[in-house]
Amino acid sequence: MAANNTDLHTAKSNAADEFYTSYKDIELEMSKYKKFFKEKKVLCPCDSYNSNFYKYFRDNYHELGLAGLCAVWYPSNYDIVYDGTTEYKHEHPGNGDFKFNYTKDIMNMWCNVIVTNPPFSLFRDFIKQVINCKQNFIILGNINAVTYKEVFPHIIEKEMRLGATIHSGDREFLVPDEYPLEGTACRMGEDGRKYIRVKGVRWFTNLKPNRDETKRNKLTETYSPDKYKKFDTYDAINVNSMKEIPYDYDGVMGCPITVIDKMGECDCVEFEDPDGNILQYEIIGMLNSGGHPDYCDFAKPIIDGKCKFKRLLLKKI
């Protein structure tokens, strides 16, 4: 675990794969979809009745105008259903795993929207299943999931986007009692429970959240061939950070994946030039492992024979 912080990849090699999202973070994001939730059935498929996801929707059931709420979790042979008045305990076959047929049936036939924080190490499997269900979703994951083959094509097609409320910094999660506390990212709370700060957290959704008006970053750099090298493998210039994007360049640029945090209402990346004019950029692909044009991964991000970190390809609209 890192000395000052950790990221969601750490969970993949750690037996403790349960990070419990705070009520506040859930409340902030869900507030951006309030009109959508009216008369919808919400499924929390990785959450028990003690989960803050379930608690939030139960607390706000009538205000949101929900038509149903269900929590299913592993390991358990029952789920919890709430109808706005009564909470029902319903026994079912299996162990509550989201990959189990019973849970798949609920995803496919009962709910209208899936909201949860799936186990970090199983995000690929989970998002693939949710997309196959053709349901609405708001789920928590890692910024690096933007480049997954299960995710990126849907971003390109504007069928998926980041949520409205987490775009930088880190978030604190409650973790199980057996989770090892290592490094300054971890602490023991006054309640005697363990907490850990995690960087790289983002919401992923196929809904259109009501975004607050955010200040666009102002670009000040200008293009010159000496300052911006081209990739050996693709006709695009390399940009090492968002602040280094040349506002006067109209060709394709390979930018850090965090540039997606600047995506606005039109599902395009937005900045301002020095005069305050809005600049819009379309994400047209990525440079990652290369050789996967079927999900817009065109080449490895190599410059002067050395492989750089993955890049998103942007072109001015």
Supply the key terms.
317 residues; 6-stranded mixed sheet; 20 strands; elongated
Describe this structure in words.
It contains 6 helices and 20 strands. With 317 residues, the chain is of the alpha/beta class. The chain has 2 domains: 6-205; 237-316. It is elongated. The relative contact order is 0.13.
Secondary structure topology:
Blueprint lengths: L5 E2 L15 H8 L10 E4 L7 H8 L1 H4 L3 E4 L6 E5 L4 E5 L9 H10 L2 E4 L6 H11 L2 E7 L9 H5 L4 E2 L7 E6 L10 E3 L5 E6 L1 E5 L31 E2 L14 E3 L13 E4 L5 E10 L9 E3 L2 E2 L2 E2 L3 E6 L1
Parallel strand pairs: 1-11, 2-3, 2-6, 6-7, 13-14, 16-17
Antiparallel strand pairs: 3-4, 4-5, 7-12, 8-12, 9-11, 10-11, 14-20, 15-16, 16-20, 18-19
Number of helices: 6
Number of strands: 20
- Terminal residue distance: 41 Å
User: So what's the oligomer here?
Assistant: single chain
Q: What characterizes the major β-sheet?
A: 8 strands, mixed
Q: What is the total number of structural domains?
A: 2
**In one word, what is the shape?**
elongated
- Indicate the percent of residues in helices: 10-25%
Q: TL;DR?
A:
The chain is 15% helix and 27% strand. It is an alpha/beta fold.
